[in-house]
Amino acid sequence: MKQKVVGIVVGLGCLIFLIGISFAAEDIKDPILKKLVEKGVLTKEEALSVTEEIKMEAKEKEKKAEEKKAKWEGSFRMRHDSQWFDKPEKADRHRERIQGRFGFTYDINEMAQVGFQLGTGEKQDQITLNQSLGDIFELKNVWLEAAYVRHKFFEKMLDVYLGKFKNPFTPHTWIVFDPDLHTEGVAIQARYELGKPSVFLNAGAFPLDEISGDSSDPWLLGIQGGIKYGEKDKFDLVVGLAHYNYSNVDLITADDNKYHGNTMNAFRVYNATANVSVYLPLYVGLTADYVFNTAADDNNDGYLLGITAGSKKVENFKDWQVFATYSRVESDATYDEFLDSDFRSGGTNNKGWTLGYRFGLGKGWAHALKYYITENVSAPIAGDKRSNEEDRIQIDLTYAFKF
Predict the structure, then answer these.
(1) Which end of the chain is more exposed for a tag (fewer CB within 10 A), N or C?
(2) Which residues contact 36 (CB under 8 A, 6 or more apart)?
(3) Cα 235 to Cα 241: distance, rounded to the nearest angstrom
């Protein structure tokens, strides 16, 4: 009898144990872990611990993937800026100036990206973020420089931009558009590989102003096509041909016109740009740019020739570049509001040299010097307060970061 009772107890114990294993296995979703528990290789607690670790690793991977969707970047520049004028009534200027930018892009999905960027600046100037120091330590302005969405189609062969974004026309030089310019409206950038060479097409429609008393608002319509070709570590060639049509710019008020040079308000501008980069033991970059306004009968063209030598980019310690550029832009070669704001204080009707160098002091840290020797091409128009001749030196410390 006693042996019978012991047998029953042992049998019930084994049954409870097997049922426990079965229920424990039911709590485990991973089929491999579940089978190991059923065979008694792992306990329920060990299997659940492994399951929790797997979940934590998956969450960490998901978090890192989400972080990769956001890209932050910014820059800071400290500058000494001196200008010397030939007009006795125009005093020379010596200023300490800063420039700051901070922004990000975020990939909403594989086809949509949003971007925002803030920047410094003394006023709502579309082509400079310079902020002079002084004014008894007054607070400084921060402006919205970019706010846009970028849609990517056809395996990133076509980009569509909506909002306020970096100038989509590339290549170009400052004799048409200042590098700080951010356009507003809609633009496309398309590219197609043809083996080693590739072709590209850029186009955009941009409202320049909204005139409440007139339905014919000022607009800029632009289109650019070109080709890229290169051999890795040997050379790169980029050639672009663009047409820019400015309509109804005569309706823009004098208060909105910050720069000078134009004698008329009709601009059907053609622009040809070529960049050649050669990678010898020393990097050498050559740039040629030509602009022609078919809407003007005279004083209607301009050109730029430039050379850069040294490192391809100045990003790290001991990277360096030297550069020299000569340019000549007649009064009505293009619309005067968007040219380089530093060259003879902006606008058209100017010519001269830009000389300088850049030197890397560390990762994301560099020193630069730029010297301008400029003068007017022809007699200035009424209201043009610029000096006929202007020399300018800019000494910079720049810092850039990404994360």
Answers:
(1) N
(2) 42, 47
(3) 21
Measure CA 44 to chain center: 55
Copy the structure tokens of residue 208.
Answer: 């320049």
DSSP per position, 369-402 = EEEEEEE-SSPPPTT--S-SEEEEEEEEEEEEEE
Q: Are residues 32 and 144 in the same domain?
A: no
* pLDDT value for 12: 44
Is the residue at 67 inside a domain? no
CATH of the domain at 172: 2.40.160.10
Q: What is the pLDDT of residue 156?
A: 84
The boundaries of the domain holding residue 136 are: 72-402
Among 256, 216, 253, residue whose Cα is nearest residue 338: 256
Alpha-carbon torsion angle 295, 249, 339, 398, nearest 10? -160
Q: Does the residue 52 lie in any domain?
A: no
Q: Kindly give the parts of the chain with pLDDT less than 70.
A: 1-27, 254-256
Q: Are residues 36 and 131 in the same domain?
A: no
Q: Is 201 helix (H, G, I), strand (E, B) or coil?
A: strand
264 and 309 inside one domain: yes
274, 247 contact by CB (below 8 A) = no
56 within some domain: no
Q: Are residues 37 and 102 in the same domain?
A: no
Q: 128, 180 in Cβ contact below 8 A?
A: yes
> DSSP string covering 142-200, please?
-EEEEEEEEEEETTTTEEEEEEEEE----S--TTTS-TT-EEEEEEEEEEEE-SS-EEE
pLDDT of residue 294: 98
Residue 336 burial by CB count (10 A; 0-12/13-18/19+): exposed, middle or buried?
Answer: buried
DSSP string, 102-117: EEEEEEEETTEEEEEE
First to last CA, the chain: 78
Q: Of 116, 90, 226, 94, which is closest to residue 170 (Cα–Cα)? A: 226
Q: What is the 3-state secondary structure (H, E, C) of 77-88?
A: EEEEEEEEECCC
Residues 344, 386: contact at Cβ < 8 Å? yes
What pLDDT does residue 254 have? 64
Neighbours of 381 (CB within 10 A): 12
